[in-house]
Write a structure and sequence with these properties.
The complex is a heterodimer of chains A (94) and B (260). Chain A has 94 residues and is mainly beta. In chain A, 7% of the residues lie in helices and 36% in strands. Chain A has one helix at residues 16-22, and strands spanning 10-11, 31-34, 40-42, 47-49, 54-58, 65-72, 75-79, 83-86. Chain A has a 5-stranded antiparallel beta sheet with strand order 1-4-5-6-7, with helices on one face. Chain A is globular, with a radius of gyration of 12 Å. Chain B is of the alpha/beta class and 260 residues long. Chain B has 2 domains: 18-110, Translation factors (Elongation Factor Tu (Ef-tu), domain 3, Beta Barrel); 118-254, Nucleotide-binding domain of ferredoxin-NADP reductase (FNR) module (Rossmann fold). Chain B contains 7 helices and 11 strands. Chain B has helices spanning 3-8, 91-97, 133-144, 147-151, 170-178, 207-213, 229-241; strands at residues 18-27, 32-38, 50-56, 62-68, 78-83, 103-110, 124-129, 155-161, 184-189, 222-228, 249-254. Classes of the chains: A mainly beta (94), B alpha/beta (260). At the A-B interface, strand 1 and helix 1 of A face strand 3, strand 4, strand 6 and strand 11 of B.
């Protein structure tokens, strides 16, 4: 994978480094339920937009912004209103 | 410890930025270059993982991108294969300018989703487009380095490139596929009439190609698809249509570069 561009279509894999700044577990593996359509998939399978000043991870089924992370002078800003649940999956049982 | 100092510490999961020194550069194609790196303190990685690379300009401006790791776990040096994207902020420097002795920052390994270990042992189907072959190569190198356990894993690669000259790792793939127990490698060209004697395909990956060159759903394979977004979407949908379990299909998409 190589990621370039302001708003390229990538997926949650490319946000793995940023997600590690927010979560103490590998959130790319975390089953995440979309508040828009109720589908559950690991964050790696969400669509990634705008990695420069943070990230928006959208549901590939309904386009709901599931995870939003902003990098601000005061720290990282996390908005999970688009996610009903995020499960910190055991890496041993993907 | 003073509260202020504790507050500045990164959370438990955050990865530190490390200094990487270029040890060697290998021209793979006219647009892709492999950088072999010395990264003190590198903790090791799984096949399929990536790193974040951060370049800092003299005025302090920083640009950050993700690149797949090409080297297998346990390799003595970390290797990245970078495709130059015109107008990019990071890849032109990495692919064209970086020379042995140059340094940059990286953090990793990142991502537990698009990873494979020989211990998974199920048949393996890899589908790559363009530089999407890089993490798949790390998987095949891990398999090749795993002796009998690797050879016991039935493996097939279907790799789509624009032209023969754009095929990354072409010689290594030919060599691996010729070895006893080596992976079956199928190539397809999307923008060039194949040369005489070409044994591969000459169109974009489609359902009949996946049916012919893929691992049958009855063999219960693990599937990995990496490439430009439209190709990944098309291949993943086709694989589901052929009867593969969606949960077994791992996907990794990358940006505006296109192989097709």
């Amino acid at each position: 994978m190589s990621a370039e561009g302001e708003c390229s279509t990538l997926d949650g894999n490319a946000a793995g480094g940023l997600l590690r700044e927010v979560f103490a577990f590998d959130a790319t593996l975390a089953p995440t339920t979309c508040a828009g359509c109720g589908r559950t998939r690991p964050m790696a399978e969400l669509m990634l937009y705008a990695i420069e000043l943070g990230a928006i991870l959208r549901c590939p089924s309904c386009d709901q912004a599931v995870v939003r992370i902003g990098r601000t002078p005061r720290g990282l800003w996390l908005d999970l209103r688009g996610a009903t649940t995020v499960v910190a999956a055991d890496p041993a049982t993907p | 410890m003073p509260v202020t100092e504790a507050a500045l510490r990164p959370p438990a999961g955050a990865l530190p930025w490390r200094s990487a020194e270029v040890v060697e550069r290998v021209a793979e194609t006219r647009r892709a270059t492999t950088l072999v790196l010395d990264v003190p303190g590198w903790p090791g990685h799984l096949a399929g993982q990536h790193v974040d690379v951060r370049l800092t300009a003299e005025d302090g401006y920083q640009a950050q991108r993700s690149y797949s790791i090409a080297s297998p776990p346990k390799a003595p040096r970390l290797a990245l294969t970078v495709e130059r994207l015109e107008g990019g902020e990071v890849s032109p420097w990495l692919a064209d300018e970086a020379r042995p002795g140059d340094r940059f920052e990286l953090r990793g390994p990142i991502g537990g989703y698009f990873t494979w270990s020989v211990a998974m042992s199920r048949p393996l189907m890899l589908v790559g487009g363009g530089s999407g072959v890089v993490p798949l190569m790390a998987i095949l190198r891990h398999r090749a380095a795993s002796g009998d356990a690797g050879r016991a894993v039935h493996a097939r690669l279907l790799y789509s490139a624009r032209t023969v000259a754009d095929i990354i790792y072409h010689q290594e793939l030919q060599r691996l596929s010729a070895e006893p127990g080596g992976p079956e490698v199928n190539l397809t060209l999307t923008r060039e009439r194949p040369p005489d004697g070409w044994k591969g395909f000459d169109r974009r990956i489609d359902v009949p190609m996946l049916a012919a060159a893929g691992v049958a759903p009855e063999m219960d394979p693990d599937l990995y698809v990496c490439g430009p977004t439209p190709m990944v979407e098309a291949v993943a949908n086709a694989l589901v249509g052929l009867g593969h379990e969606p949960a077994r299909i791992r996907t990794e998409r990358f940006g505006p570069t296109g192989e097709g």
